[in-house]
Amino acid sequence: MRSSVTAQHGWAALDLTERLALLARVADTVEEHVTELARLENLEMGKPVPLAE
């Protein structure tokens, strides 16, 4: 719980441009690994890979 509070304070200290840049990096990383993430979701939830992508 403490780490989430600490992280939130750090996030709140960022300006909008910095937040958008970080979110864009997260989105790029997810896109780069979409097939792997879909396979993991398939293993965890039993969801067919095409639906997970």
Can you offer a commentary on this structure?
InterPro entries: Ald_DH/histidinol_DH (IPR016161), Ald_DH_N (IPR016162), Aldehyde_DH_dom (IPR015590). Residues 3-52 form the Aldehyde dehydrogenase domain. Keywords: Oxidoreductase. One of its GO terms (molecular function) is oxidoreductase activity. This protein is elongated. It has helices at 2-13, 16-32, 34-45, 49-52. The chain has a domain at 16-52. The protein has 53 residues and is mainly α. It has 4 helices and no strands. Helices cover 85% and strands 0% of the residues.
List the helices and strands and how they pair.
Blueprint: H1 2-13, H2 16-32, H3 34-45, H4 49-52
Chain-averaged pLDDT: 89
Gross geometry: elongated
Largest sheet descriptor = none
Q: List the quaternary state of the chains.
A: single chain
Helix count from the secondary structure assignment: 4
Return residue spans where pLDDT drops below 50 for at least 5 consecutive residues. Answer: none
Content of β-strand: under 5%
